[in-house]
Recover the amino acids of this structure.
């Protein structure tokens, strides 16, 4: 059977069952992981760790207390995510030890690993398996907490994956649909760690030797792919949290090489998060899932929840009072040893002198573009690349040193229209943003100057924001060092109402050209001082930046 025939058969299968949107995307979209290595760009991922982290935090304690206060009867109905984490929290808190062991010994395997879909209805067991792996490695050598009989039962019955059958494909897809990142890492990471546990505890069967059975190399290759080419499921809701969880296991319990590789991927993910967020406000373009496009909160994505928990242990005394103790991802963050690098932590609240960065995600994807000053961040919303891309585009948003928690509380632009699948919100340059729609003005903000479609706002930390807004075009320009007669200068340099839709002139002489109706494969910014820009973001490097 040739490849085309297989594709036609699987397409028919997908149509028949009416599901597996991810599978259709991978089969008929362009899979960048098969297109070679991306260029690294000119900005390296910081790894320095000099700060000494606190070993205790009030927020961390509240997380453990929340999860260890859940009843074992309750978690029987809470499925793949909550249940195993309550068991983990009990052992961490040294509570209900006998009851927890009894509960584990009564557990049954309630599914299979891999993506759940119409032909694999019992999938997703790897969500539970990943936390069972954490429990084994964290407490398997503490018989007063995880009883030996319980550990044996977990290994022989509950931990279903071992050996060397590394699975790249989604179950029941004839091997044609690549499994998602989060499922590969959860399933194969758990398989690898069960093998490693057995080998380190005296089982000499070569099938469990990860160095000889191929598991070490295959998993290292996956991690190298993520570090080199970035994530396919970038900023994904909800999957980024489960990807991080699987990586935390490998970073804590893998071989020396595996720990380093997992830490490198986590550092890359946290560095890009830090570049694209400010005071835990994060509203970036994301791949998967479309039904999450309606989320308007700025601080509740799963990566933010990990970061909130980590920061609660920082000696810099960040306020974690608004953290979510009830998040399963908060629990994994506080119970696992990984902590971000120093600069990732510092840049959450101190952007230094600012920066301008462009993050590539490869062919048929959306870039991330960020412009930061000392006290602001402009976050480009990205672009949907067609139905099969699974990319959610967001409004271009301005984050400030304030208490905004919802999109409506920010200055933002999106367009044309209200359907994110029609947007190209990549129009961000240094201190500048534009898009094919009006600028949203927060309800509590009043202009200090206004003329026609122009207005100016005096914001905190001495920031001046100049806005031009019509129903079909919006523009935002940020100034941190106030210039005398700024509003008048801008109006005098940008008098042509027709030209402003394609060109803006800064008072310092810099001129920006743009096309807010650019095709979905082109960066909205066309030129800077009449110098044409590289608009093909399918070929942009992984991280390319300009530090001020």
């Amino acid at each position: 059977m040739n490849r085309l025939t297989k594709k036609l058969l699987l397409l028919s299968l997908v149509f028949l069952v009416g599901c597996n949107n991810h599978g259709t995307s991978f089969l008929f979209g362009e899979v960048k992981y098969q297109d070679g290595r991306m260029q690294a760009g000119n900005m390296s991922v910081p790894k320095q760790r000099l700060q000494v982290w606190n070993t205790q935090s009030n927020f961390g304690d509240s997380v453990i207390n929340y999860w260890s206060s859940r009843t074992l009867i309750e978690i029987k109905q809470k499925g793949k995510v909550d249940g195993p984490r309550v068991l983990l929290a009990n052992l961490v808190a040294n509570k209900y030890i006998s009851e927890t062991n009894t509960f584990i010994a009564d557990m049954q395997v309630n599914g299979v690993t891999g993506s759940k879909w119409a032909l694999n209805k019992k999938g997703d067991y790897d969500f539970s398996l990943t936390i069972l792996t954490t429990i084994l490695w964290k407490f398997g050598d503490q018989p007063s907490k995880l009883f030996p009989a319980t550990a044996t039962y977990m290994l022989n019955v509950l931990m279903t994956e071992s050996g060397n059958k590394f699975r790249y494909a989604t179950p029941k897809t004839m091997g044609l649909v690549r499994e998602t990142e989060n499922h590969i890492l959860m399933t194969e990471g758990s398989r690898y760690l069960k093998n490693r546990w057995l080998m380190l505890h005296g089982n000499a069967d070569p099938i469990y030797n990860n160095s000889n059975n191929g598991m070490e190399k295959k998993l290292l290759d996956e991690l190298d792919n993520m570090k080199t080419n970035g994530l396919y499921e970038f900023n994904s809701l909800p999957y980024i949290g489960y990807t991080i969880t699987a990586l935390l296991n490998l970073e804590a319990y893998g071989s020396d090489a595996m720990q380093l590789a997992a830490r490198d991927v986590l550092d890359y993910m946290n560095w890009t998060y830090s570049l694209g967020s400010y005071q835990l406000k994060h509203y970036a373009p994301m791949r998967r899932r479309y039904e999450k496009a309606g989320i308007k909160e700025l601080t509740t994505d799963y990566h933010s929840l990990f970061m909130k928990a980590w920061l609660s242990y920082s000696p810099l005394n960040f306020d974690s009072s608004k953290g979510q103790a009830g998040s399963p991802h908060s629990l994994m963050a506080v119970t696992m040893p990984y902590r971000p690098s120093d600069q990732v932590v510092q840049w959450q609240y101190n952007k230094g002198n600012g920066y301008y960065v462009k993050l590539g995600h490869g062919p048929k994807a959306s870039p991330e573009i960020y412009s930061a000053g000392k006290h602001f961040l402009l976050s480009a919303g990205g672009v949907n690349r067609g139905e099969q891309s699974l990319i959610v585009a967001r409004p271009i948003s301005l984050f400030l040193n304030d208490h905004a928690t919802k999109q409506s509380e920010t200055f933002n632009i999106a367009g044309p229209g209200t359907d994110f699948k029609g947007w190209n919100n990549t129009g961000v340059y240094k201190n500048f943003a534009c898009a094919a729609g009006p600028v949203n003005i927060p309800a509590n903000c009043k202009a200090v100057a206004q003329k026609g479609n122009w207005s100016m706002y005096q914001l905190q930390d001495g920031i001046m924001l100049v806005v031009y807004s019509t129903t079909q075009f919006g523009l935002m320009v940020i100034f941190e060092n106030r210039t005398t007669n700024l509003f008048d200068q801008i109006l005098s340099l940008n008098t042509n109402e027709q030209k402003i839709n394609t060109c803006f002139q800064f008072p310092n002489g810099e001129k920006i050209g743009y096309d807010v109706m650019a095709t979905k494969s082109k960066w909205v910014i066309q030129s800077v001082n009449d110098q044409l820009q590289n608009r093909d973001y399918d070929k942009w490097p992984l991280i390319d930046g300009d530090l001020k």
Observations:
- Residues 15-19, 26-34 have pLDDT under 50 and may be disordered.
